[in-house]
Amino acid sequence: MKQTRFIPIEECNLQVREDANGQPSRTVVGRPIVFGVRSVNLTPWSDTRVVYEILEPGCITQELINRSDVVYNNNHSNDIANMIGRCRNGKGTLTLALREQYVESECDYPNTTVANDTLEQIRLGNVYGMSFAFEDDWQDTENGVSYERTNETVDGKEVWLRHVKKIVALYDVANVTHPAYEQTSVATREASEAIDKAIEAQLKRECGDKNDNRDDDPDEPDDIDDKNDDKGETDEEREAREKAEQEARELAEREQKEREAVAVMRMRRNRLALQERDIETFSY
To answer: What is the C-alpha separation between 83 and 109, in angstroms, rounded?
Structure first.
């Protein structure tokens, strides 16, 4: 399932690089992917738990980057006009370099309307957030994605950590206009419920392991239900989870289209205002 995560402002380090003479260039660098940092709560609708996600070092490899087709854009827009750079099979105008604690992006902005406008907004400090779209190996509960219950609580809720150990696909990196909104928009109710169900499945597996390790007692009843798969899910649970994930994807796509429509309307209004200002300035 394709997911989007915003990188905390203090971590993404989005900036315009200076040239050899100390003057601003057209090269923009940033950190769209950072390891070991907690995300915002991914289950805001849960009444029982808070779940933070952590990308573990090693979840992304340079080999994955080199075989991916990653687009650099604004707000994860699929519109070709919003494309700023691209890294396809390790080559292109976008460079993605794997570091110890993050993935660094570097792009020489092209001479396009969107790129020029975005470059100026970054220089002014109006755009400072980044995010990336990816797919993790959530089906592998050992080496892909696992959940850890901590001793922490938030507003009386248990705090869990979602450890992403393996990312199997990278789709795009993006400058984002509203970082906080971008972060919460992907945490839809359906996605929240899917994470809750994954945690419940893990708890059932752990409970099953404990019961399997107890001493055999002929007088003790065995009331553990048999599961139809080795991941602790019944057919009904799996169907419910897959349905929730599909609904979450559809809702996220609708939200993205709505944000793109709003962004286009704002850009048109801004351009119209500039044109009117220019007419007034040069009128006699």
So the answer is: 10
- What's residue 100's pLDDT? 94
The answer to whether 72 and 221 are in contact (CB under 8 A) is no
Cα torsion 177, 183, 189, 193 to 10°: value is 160
- Does residue 220 lie within any of the structural domains? no
Question: Counting beta carbons within 10 angstroms of the beta carbon of residue 163, is it exposed (0 to 12), middle (13 to 18) or buried (19 or more)?
Answer: middle
**Structure tokens given for 163:** 């450890």
pLDDT at 93: 96
Give the containing element (helix H, strand E) for 27: strand 24-34
d(CA 72, CA 111): 15
DSSP 38: B
- Contact (Cβ atoms closer than 8 angstroms) between residue 4 and residue 131: yes
- How many domains in the chain? 1
Q: Write out the two tokens for 64.
A: 């994955």
User: What are the pLDDT digits (tens) for 77-123?
Assistant: 999 999 999 999 999 999 999 999 999 999 999 999 999 999 999 99
Which residue carries 């205002």 as its tokens?
273
Residue 190 lies in a domain: yes
Print the domain residue range for 238.
2-211+233-282
DSSP labels, 131-148: EEEEEE-TT-TTTTEEEE
**Does residue 225 lie within any of the structural domains?**
no
Report the C-alpha gap between 149 and 156 in whole angstroms. 14
pLDDT value for 92: 96
| pTM of model > 0.70 | no
Could you give the 3-state DSSP secondary structure of residue 231? coil
For residue 218, being part of any structural domain is answered with no
The predicted-structure confidence for 213-264, as pLDDT tens digits, reads as follows: 655 555 555 544 444 444 567 777 777 777 777 777 777 667 666 666 666 6
* 3-class SS shares of the chain: helix, strand, coil, % to 5: 35, 30, 30
